[in-house]
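Review form for a predicted model. The reviewer records the input and the model, then writes brief findings.
Reviewer: anonymous (R2)
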Amino acid sequence: RYVVVDVGAELASPEFALHQGAVALADEVLLVASPEVAGLHRVREALAVVRGELGVPADRVHLCLLYTSD
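Model under review:
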């Protein structure tokens, strides 16, 4: 069974402590990014928070790149 929690893009702010707790306790964390420069920049910042501030080990963090073909 899986429980999916969409915590949004903002994790660094103290007002998102509940989101931070959910991410820290998750068995697997998926960071989803768009392939544009801004999206990649935001996922890099989120990765720093998840790995650094929340202490989630690298083997539990996965990056997903959104892609659509026209």
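Findings: The CA atoms of residues 50 and 56 lie 6 Å apart.
Further findings: The longest helix spans residues 37-53.
Recommendation: see findings above.
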